[in-house]
């Protein structure tokens, strides 16, 4: 069993002020795989104070020095990517192939995207002949990250913040902390100055709340549930710090009559990816009535033929969900769905042959209406709800009838319709016809899916203040 009780503060690995052991559970086996310590107020203060002390110096370093260190980090990340893949598989159950190619790969992708965006980024901008607009680092940033795509989220926050001259305190998920601890090792190996990057473990009510209301923290960037995002916003309000939130989603995948023949199949596969543990998953499939029966059959076939197994197995299967709490929540919502809609695949309990581990059957419900619980609540598991529609207007209305607004999807061969509907969907992202987003594309949502954007230029700007200066002499 791994013992990982230390925190990374001010360039050193340090013991917690007060020991507070916390078991890390392998979701594939339900066995303890590691022990960490949860931090307390003294640890939070130490990390924040280190970041504060380092800020003045780091914020004034030439951008070339910051870029050089990020490039070094990228080299370390690449050299040790197999370690990272193993850590992610162990802590949150991503199958090894998914962990290597997508979980770890997402981190590499975003580092490259930020470096590319940073090459031409302008911190000093001419407003007119006599006035300058300066973009300056906001200060000390608390980064609170989730367990479902750990490297994706850590790198989307840490790299842009540090690149623009901020200093940071990272609190990864205590449920899946091993990747965050390993990332701290990478930062240390890359040679960032003491205090620029700090990492401590803790839970939401403890370290998460302490960071959110800390008077020396200038900004909180959080990814997680809408419930937690609201709590963080309230905690941060007394100090009026900036809060950037990437929260839940209930994405609609609108399949029109003229969509690709395999659109429903692709949508179901996408819904079940990462065991459904993605905020941008297309969990509501809206299908034109002329294609509805076909789509239900196709999605049910995908669910039936999606293999579920341990994270340690090679292959394209899906693994367990992350924890007992998540497993129980998903089972409760599946049970609720069985009382509301027509179950066509999956259902309650573990898949056959899996008696231990937090495994969920890929599940499909048909004849769903958008007022049902399973259509409104973010389930965060491999559960798909299929809803029929007749007209374009009805599809738009159903898609927008949700508290969330992260990612919606459109499938149609009619380009005018595709663009027209994309403009009317109330979400931060709209993916059309399976075309993925480019490197550096802004990631974020409307409504209760949060505020702010991550990735590329938009991600860099998130960690900057804007200063107007008059009377700037010509250079």
Automatic annotation (TrEMBL):
UniProt xrefs under Pfam families: Aldedh
EC number(s) per entry: 1.2.1.3
GO molecular function, one term: aldehyde dehydrogenase (NAD+) activity
Transmembrane segments annotated in the record for this chain: none
Catalyzed reactions per annotation: an aldehyde + NAD(+) + H2O = a carboxylate + NADH + 2 H(+)
Domain Aldehyde dehydrogenase intervals: 13-469
UniProt entry tagged with the keyword Oxidoreductase: yes
Keywords of the record: Oxidoreductase
Domain of life: Bacteria
InterPro entries recorded: Ald_DH/histidinol_DH, Ald_DH_C, Ald_DH_CS_CYS, Ald_DH_N, Aldehyde_DH_dom
Enzyme's top EC category: oxidoreductase
Family that this chain belongs to: Belongs to the aldehyde dehydrogenase family.
Entry protein name: aldehyde dehydrogenase (NAD(+))
């Amino acid at each position: 069993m791994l013992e990982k009780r230390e925190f990374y503060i001010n360039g050193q690995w340090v013991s917690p002020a007060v020991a507070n052991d916390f078991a890390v559970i392998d979701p594939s086996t339900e066995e303890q795989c590691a022990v960490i310590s949860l931090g307390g107020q003294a640890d939070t203060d130490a990390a924040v104070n280190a970041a504060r002390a380092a800020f003045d110096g780091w914020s004034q370093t030439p951008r070339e020095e910051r870029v050089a260190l990020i490039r070094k980090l990228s080299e370390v990340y690449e050299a040790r990517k197999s370690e990272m893949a193993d850590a992610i598989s162990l802590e949150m159950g991503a199958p090894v192939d998914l962990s290597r190619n997508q979980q770890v790969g997402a981190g590499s992708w975003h580092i490259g995207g930020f470096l590319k965006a940073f090459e031409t980024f302008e911190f000093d901008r001419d407003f007119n002949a006599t006035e300058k607009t300066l973009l300056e680092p906001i200060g000390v940033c608390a980064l609170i990250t989730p367990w479902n795509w750990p490297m994706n989220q850590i790198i989307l926050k840490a790299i842009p913040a540090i690149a623009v001259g901020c200093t940071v305190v990272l609190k990864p998920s205590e449920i899946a902390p091993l990747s965050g601890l390993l990332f701290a090792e990478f930062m240390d190996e890359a040679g960032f100055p003491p205090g620029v990057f700090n990492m401590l473990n803790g839970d939401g009510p403890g370290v998460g709340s302490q960071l959110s209301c800390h008077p020396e923290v200038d900004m909180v960037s959080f990814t997680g549930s809408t419930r937690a995002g609201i709590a963080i916003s309230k905690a941060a309000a007394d100090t009026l710090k900036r809060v950037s939130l990437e929260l839940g989603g209930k994405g609609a995948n609108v399949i029109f009559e003229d969509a690709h023949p395999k659109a429903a199949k692709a949508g179901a596969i996408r819904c079940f990816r990462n065991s459904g543990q993605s905020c941008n998953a297309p969990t509501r499939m809206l299908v034109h009535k002329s294609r509805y029966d076909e789509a239900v059959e196709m999605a049910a076939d995908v669910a039936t033929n999606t293999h579920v197994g341990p994270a340690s197995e090679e292959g394209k299967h899906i693994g367990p969900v992350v924890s007992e709490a998540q497993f129980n929540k998903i089972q409760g919502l599946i049970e609720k769905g069985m009382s509301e809609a027509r179950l066509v695949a999956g259902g309650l309990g573990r898949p056959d042959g899996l008696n231990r581990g937090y495994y969920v059957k890929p599940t499909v419900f048909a004849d769903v209406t958008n007022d049902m619980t399973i259509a409104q609540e973010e389930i965060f598991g491999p559960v798909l709800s299929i809803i029929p529609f007749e007209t374009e207007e009805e599809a738009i209305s159903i898609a927008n009838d949700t508290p969330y607004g992260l990612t919606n999807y459109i499938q149609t061969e009619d380009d005018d319709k595709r663009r027209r509907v994309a403009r009317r969907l109330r979400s931060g992202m709209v993916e059309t016809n399976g075309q993925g987003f480019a490197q550096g594309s802004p990631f974020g949502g409307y409504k209760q899916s949060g505020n702010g954007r991550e990735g590329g230029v938009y991600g860099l700007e998130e960690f900057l203040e804007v200063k107007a200066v008059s009377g700037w002499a010509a250079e």
